[in-house]
Design goal:
The structure holds two protein chains of two kinds. Chain A is mainly alpha-helical. Chain A contains 14 helices and two strands. Chain A has a two-stranded antiparallel sheet. Chain A is globular and about 60 Å long. Chain B has six helices and no strands. In chain B, helix 2 runs antiparallel to helix 3. The chains are: A mainly alpha, B mainly alpha. At the A-B interface, helix 4, helix 5 and helix 6 of A face helix 2 and helix 3 of B.
């Protein structure tokens, strides 16, 4: 019983740490997005709250927390309440299989556990895809339950968009899975150690450059970000599926969107850019004689790669106009899908010709 | 412990499956179907078939059910439209099924059930690999036939959809204008 208790304690600690890290990242992102957009548009961004505006996220959180919670007349109350949770939970649950640092094992009282991944299951990436596809329910039901035509249109657009682009995300990462021969994110990351040309973006028999481009574009579409933010297009649909939401429920949708951004960035870093592996073999701290501190360097590399993708999201938002709906569908099915399929064929042939590398 | 987990999953599956046809609001029906798919996936996990569980969620919950929800919301069906007087037909189907089940359970007690093949593969075995190996060696022909059937269905759906929006739609429009 004590062994089970200790196991629970360790897992719960890990989960708490990961959730706190994700929420802190989201807080940073809300400020960073406004700052980065401001700089790109030659203005300052938020400057009022705290020195240089760095307390803005807390001000936003307090404001949302104390706002009046409005349920529109004629709304389906149960689903209106459930939808934000349905959006939030799948966004957070995927982090359970992301490896944040080196594949170490610790032993405490005979219990072996990995400190840098909550659960190393052998279908890791499929688990993330399975729960990511459930995030659409929150958006669709939120749009339907609000009893508003703008919300409903946003929800319907989102359903079509998520289904179309989810397929491309799944097909884009198949190339990496073929190269790694495993679905576990821990094994996929371990296989990319060494110099940076071992990362699957540049790996020898079949560099996954096209798959990487398809993945990045499709994941932007899956998280409903600009230029694929048709479900919440403010010039057409007020605010899309969360037009009627206010206060904490709105905050949940907001949190879910940003947590999803962090999640897809983590997957991109782990699958294409070597995850926590540095671009050189080993770590500098190990060479300097601190092997027990090497994990700091590794997690920093992981964070740097993840933040690079998050910056890319802001960059795209500042640069590109929104797509039209028919352009979105045509692009997804007639451009992205054939590239992803061709990548699978090419990768399979390359792996067949060079089975040892 | 394993019995308890199975009991939970099986119970929820039975209840939600019934709710799918019993609930009046079609959106709630779709949601209870979603909960049912989740618990079926849970049963797969207890059988050490994690790959099947993930595919169950991706294909059924993530894609097919979203389309159902899409259709249900677009049709905006009146709640009473779904209830036709079909209990006689239902009785004709259900009573024989119940009898068959009773006969099956009564007869099944005598024989010992054959051991599951899954018992031989322990929890450590990578079942995604095992499924791939089986699909592409032993069951290669049925697998290819199934994919061909799916392709035919896909092409058929496109042909049907294209014919309606193409020449047919234009003619219908013309007819509407000419008819008084």
């Amino acid at each position: 019983m004590t062994e089970l208790g200790l196991r629970f304690f360790l897992s719960l600690t890990q989960i708490a740490v990961v959730v706190v890290i994700v929420i802190v990242t989201v807080l940073i992102l809300t400020l960073a997005e406004r700052k980065v957009l401001g700089w790109m548009q030659d203005r300052m961004g938020p400057m009022e709250v705290g020195p240089y505006g760095i307390l803005q996220p807390f001000a936003d959180a307090i404001k949302l927390f104390f706002k009046e919670d409005i349920v529109p007349a004629g709304a389906n109350k149960f689903l209106f309440t459930a939808a934000p949770l349905l959006a939030l939970i799948p966004a957070f649950i995927g982090f359970a299989v992301i490896p944040w640092g080196p594949d170490w094992t610790l032993e405490i009282n005979g219990i072996i556990y990995k400190p840098f991944v909550i659960s190393d299951i052998n279908i890791g990436i499929l688990y993330i895809l399975a729960f990511a596809s459930l995030g659409a329910y929150g958006i669709i039901l939120g749009g339907w339950a609000s009893n508003s035509k703008y919300s409903l249109l946003g929800g319907l657009r989102s359903a079509a968009q998520v289904i179309s682009y989810e397929l491309n995300v799944g097909l884009a990462i198949i190339g990496v899975i073929i190269l790694a021969g495993s679905l576990s994110l821990v094994k996929i990351t371990n296989a990319q150690s060494g110099w940076f040309w071992h990362w699957y973006l540049f790996a020898f028999p079949a560099p996954q450059i096209f798959a990487f481009v398809v993945y990045v574009i499709s994941s932007v579409a899956e998280t409903n970000r600009v230029p694929f933010d048709l479900p919440e297009a403010e010039s057409e649909l007020v605010a899309g599926f969360f037009t009627e939401y206010s206060g904490l429920r709105f905050a949940f949708f907001y949190l879910a969107e940003y947590a999803n951004m962090v999640l897809v960035s983590c997957i991109a870093a782990a699958m294409f850019l070597g995850g926590w592996n540095a671009p050189y073999p080993g770590t500098i701290l190990e060479l300097l004689g601190f092997p027990s501190l090497a994990w700091i360097e590794n997690t920093m590399w992981f964070a740097a790669k993840t933040y690079f993708f998050l910056f890319l999201f802001f960059w795209l938002r500042a640069t590109l106009p929104r797509l039209r709906y028919d352009q979105l569908m045509r692009f997804g099915w007639k451009v992205m899908l054939p590239i992803a399929l061709a990548n699978i064929v090419v990768t399979s042939i390359a792996v067949y010709l060079f089975p040892n590398s | 412990m394993a019995q308890l987990v199975f009991g939970y999953f099986a119970g929820v599956i039975a209840v939600t499956a019934m709710l799918v046809v019993a609930l009046k609001n079609p959106v709630y029906s779709v949601l209870s179907l979603l909960i049912m798919f989740f618990h079926v996936a849970g049963l797969y996990v207890t059988l050490h078939a994690e790959f099947l569980a993930a595919v169950q969620l991706i294909v059924y919950a993530g894609a097919i059910l979203v389309l159902y929800l899409f259709v249900v919301m677009l049709l905006n069906a009146k709640q009473d439209d779904r209830y036709h007087r079909q209990w006689r037909a239902a009785g004709f189907v259900c009573v024989p099924l119940l009898l068959e089940l009773l006969v099956l359970f009564a007869g099944g007690k005598m024989e010992s059930s054959p051991p599951f093949p899954a018992d031989q593969a322990g929890p450590g075995v990578d079942n995604a690999k095992a499924i791939g190996m089986t699909l592409f060696s032993t069951y290669l022909f049925p697998f290819e036939v199934a994919s061909l059937i799916l392709l035919v269905a896909m092409v058929g759906a496109i042909v049907l959809a294209k014919r309606d929006t193409g020449g047919g739609g234009h003619d219908a429009h013309k007819d509407n204008r000419l008819s008084p």
